[in-house]
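[Q] Does anyone have a clean structure-token version of this?
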Amino acid sequence: MHIHQNGNQLPPIPYSIVTPGMFDGVHLGHLSLLKKLKQLSNEKGGETVLLTYWPHPRMVLHPEKPALPLLTTLDEKLELFEQAGIDHVVILPFTKAFSAWHADEFVEKILIQNLQTKILVVGYDHHFGNNREGNFEYLLHNKTRFGFEIIEIPATFIDEMAVSSTKIRYALQAANIEAVNHFLGRSYSLIGKVVLGNQKGRTIGFPTANIHLVDSEKLIPADGVYAVKVEVKNQSLFGMINIGFRPTVNGRSRTIEVHILDFHGDIYGDPIKVNFEHYLRPEKAFGSLDELKKQLENDVLSTRSYFA
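[A] Here you go.
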């Protein structure tokens, strides 16, 4: 897969089949659209081109609002695009100046001049250009002038998938991990680096790895305890993760701590990935460290039972 930071130096593509969008989450609906793109490229002997934007438009247009938590970082999206077999990914910097472009300007400069579009595949509700003036009807009306074929993914297709990035966000905030993973077609994950914590867990026989996220804009699931699969030091292991404020030890900030089952290695400073599989329980305050230890022992049993 070829990654282009803008569309200006794109090499000549004999037959480019293009789809634009943010693709946050790269969920089953997105993957079905990408599958359609690959099908067209096989039929036409062309190459697939995915056009996306960074940063997220809401962060640029509405900086006064709370930051929109992302389901996938840019690096995660690129990895998923490659797995889907996309030939080219063009990342356009989203700026206020770019947002002011009219639909005609976007089509002429990006789709025609830069991407040499032969087929454009868009979702039924896709909009672009200043004030969202560009849509499928606009493209269809100007089809002859633009000189490329336009294919719309119909609403019925999207509705049949019953999935959206918004639904996934709500499910994560409700700790409904099974629904999240169903919508994604894979396990939801967090990627970070292991950093030094207060090491309270060691005193009761449950050492944990504190995780500092690679990207602070990534959406963190609801507070609580989860059964997870852990990827660290080229190993895939089982574990349980706690997200929250550690009320039993008077924690003052939200942390992400994972206890890896049957593992005793030194991983400080190492990259780590946790894949969420199952919600175990909410975070709660215990009367003593002994009570917390008993609960953690039960959590380990629950985690082993789940993965068994």
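[Q] Thanks! Anything notable?
[A] The radius of gyration is 23 Å.
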